[in-house]
Structures are given as C-alpha cells and as structure tokens.
Specification:
Layout lengths: L1 H15 L5 H8 L3 H13 L3 E2 L8 E2 L1 H10 L2 H19 L2 E8 L2 E8 L14 E3 L5 H7 L4 H8 L14 H14 L2 E4 L6 E9 L5 E10 L5 H33 L1
Antiparallel strand pairs: 1-2, 3-4, 3-8, 4-5, 6-7, 7-8
Length: 256
C-alpha cells in the first residue's frame, strides 16, 4: 500500500507537468494531509521529486527522469523523434541524425536523409561514435559531469585524421566553446571531406542524454554553414526534448 501511494503521487505530479504544491497534490490524491506530506518528503529524500525554487513546489526529480530514460528503448525514442527528424531533413535538405548517450558510449540510433533526388548527401551510419572526435559525442560530452569528461580525456585518444583533436587542453577548450554556443561541430575529424554539426538534447535537468545533428560534404559544410545549421539543430533539439518528455507523460497517463 505504501509503494502504491508513492507511485500514485508521482503519477499525479507527472501528468500536471508543472511545479505543484503539496496542497494541490493532497487535494488531487485525497490522502490525509499528514500522510501526503510525509510521502512527498520521502520522494524528495530519494530524489524522485525535486524542488526547483523557493516556493516549496515540486516536480518530477532528476533521478526518476534518468530511470525513465534508461528504460526507454531506442524504438520508443525513434518513434517520437523520427517525424521531427524527417521534417528537418526535408527542410534543410541535409542528412539529420539522432544520437544517444548510454553506458558511457554515444551511438547514432536514427538517420533521416534528404528527399531531393538531385541532392548528394552523406549517410553517417548507425552505431557507436568516438567520444572526442564526432559532433554528436562532443555535444553530449561538453555538458556531461566533469568525471565523465575526465574519463574521456584520460584515454589514449586516436587521431583519425590530421584534423582530430587529441590534446586534453584543446578538447577542454572545445568543450567550453560548445557550452557557450550551444552546439558542436566536426570538421573532417573522422573522415576527410565530411563535416557535421550537433546540438545536445537536454531532458529535464539531467544533462544531455541525446544529441541531434546534421552531416554533409565539406564543400557545403564550411564554417559559416555549420554555424547556420548549428542554430537550426538547437531549435530542433528543443522540439525533440519536448517530444520525448511528452511520450513519458503519455505512458504515465496510459498506465493510470
């Protein structure tokens, strides 16, 4: 019964989708005030609920969001992100991809290509990408916890091409630049003649669990064009984050 009540409160807060006061939660749940306040405090203590400001209102916590994302399959993520990626690929007329961070690895999990039959495009492939030499990985690593960045930089980093950054100082400076401008780029760091841009997909307050980017031939993906595409990827990343979070809420509603 105790666990059932805790789950019920989490469902109420998740469906509302905004900071909620304990009084609102108590009214919606019908629980006695002392019981409701005690259960809410338990959820806060376990970081399943967070208090984002000084109003004492609560939202779904970082720990619970992380658990939900870890349990979400690639199929589930692709299902809610694919329509947005397809529209973007058609609109900007470039290949667009979605990457995921899990188990200390970054993998491209979905790709959409331009529909223009006259357009030459690059397909980045599916699967794991180097953490130091791909825009999709760097967009995630730049916003990661310092311990994970240290983990990346402590390795014997491979220089795939003459343009691959492998020094700790250069990569730390690049991570800082990525955070400042909001997107990462890769200028022929893995394959000569190919460049890409990616923006982090921020879910709640747990950092970047995904990244979304575009890839193409260097003859189109010059510095100015990469910055232009980077700004578009930032907007797309916000839409994808919203779609993933909305799918989480929908799952809660269906379970209810």
């Amino acid at each position: 019964m105790h666990l059932e009540r805790l789950i019920g409160l989490l469902e109420i807060i998740a469906v509302v989708g905004r900071p909620v006061s304990v009084a609102e939660i108590q009214k919606a749940s019908g629980l006695p005030k002392p019981t409701c306040y005690r259960l809410v405090q338990t959820l806060i203590d376990q970081r399943l609920l967070d208090q984002p400001d000084d109003t004492a209102k609560v939202v779904i916590g970082e720990r619970l969001i992380r658990i939900a994302l870890l349990g979400k399959s690639d199929v589930d993520v692709r299902r809610c992100a694919a329509p947005l990626l397809k529209t973007a690929a058609t609109t900007i007329n470039e290949t667009v991809f979605l990457a995921r961070f899990r188990d200390s690895r970054v993998e491209i999990i979905h790709v959409e290509t331009p529909k223009d039959p006259a357009r030459a495009f690059v397909h980045p492939g599916i699967g794991e990408r180097p953490l130091h030499a791909c825009s999709c990985s760097k967009a995630i690593a730049a916003f990661a916890e310092p311990a994970f960045q240290d983990h990346i930089l402590s390795k014997n980093l491979k220089a795939y091409t003459e343009f691959t950054q492998i020094s700790e100082a250069d990569l730390r400076a690049e991570f800082a630049e990525i955070v400042e401008r909001g997107f990462a780029d890769c200028d022929q760091e893995i394959d000569i003649g190919i460049a890409s841009v990616a923006a982090p997909v921020m879910i709640g307050n747990i950092g970047a669990s995904f990244s979304v980017g575009a890839v193409g031939p260097i003859r189109r993906f010059g510095t100015a064009y990469r910055h232009e595409i980077g700004e578009k990827m930032k907007l797309l990343s916000t839409k994808i984050a919203g779609a993933i979070q909305l799918s989480n809420v929908s799952e809660v509603q269906r379970a209810d």
